[in-house]
């Protein structure tokens, strides 16, 4: 009877040995693939470096002159819109430009939802520190300002409309 009990463990032992072999074999395969990837990456890097050196040695062929966009100095206002969890919201943005640089900015909440109004006020309190002194063409989505991340989308919408209005 003891022999029959010992034989009942035999399939389990064979299964464990098989699983162990798969795990070890898989680890070796992954290590080999990682080494091949590293070699490929090194080759790519060297090729890129050689290409960059060749490119910098050639004389520039582009003779076009860059056109400078100039905006008319003044104060401009526009309403930007964005989608919040409460629905569509708007924000009024007023910007003063001098030599294409923002010298002043004011954001007035236009939201209808109380939470959105709160968030727009937070945004308005912090946007000046981020935007004033920048060229209007360099203004991008400001991200999270004082906990408000969605108002920035409406702000950028308004800035794009202001840029269109201020073009010479």
TrEMBL record:
Region Disordered, annotated ranges: 39-63
Keyword line: Membrane, Transmembrane, Transmembrane helix
Top-level lineage group: Bacteria
Membrane spanning stretches: 12-30
Annotated protein name in UniProt: Calcium-binding protein
Source species of the chain: Candidatus Dojkabacteria bacterium
Biological classification of the source: Bacteria, Candidatus Dojkabacteria
């Amino acid at each position: 009877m003891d022999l029959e009990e010992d034989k009942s463990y035999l399939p389990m032992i064979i299964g464990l040995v098989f699983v162990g072999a798969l795990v070890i074999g898989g680890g070796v395969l992954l290590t080999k693939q990682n080494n091949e990837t590293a070699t490929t990456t090194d080759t790519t890097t060297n090729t890129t470096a050689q290409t960059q050196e060749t490119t910098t040695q050639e004389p520039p062929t582009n003779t076009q002159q860059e056109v400078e966009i100039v905006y008319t100095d003044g104060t401009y206002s526009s309403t930007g819109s964005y989608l919040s969890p409460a629905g569509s919201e708007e924000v009024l943005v007023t910007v003063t430009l001098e030599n294409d640089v923002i010298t002043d900015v004011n954001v007035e909440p236009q939201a209808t939802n109380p939470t959105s109004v709160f968030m727009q006020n937070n945004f308005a309190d912090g946007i000046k520190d981020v935007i004033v002194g920048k060229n209007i063409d360099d203004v991008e989505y400001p991200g999270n300002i004082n906990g408000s991340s969605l108002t920035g989308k409406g702000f950028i919408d308004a800035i794009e409309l202001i840029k269109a209005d201020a073009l010479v």
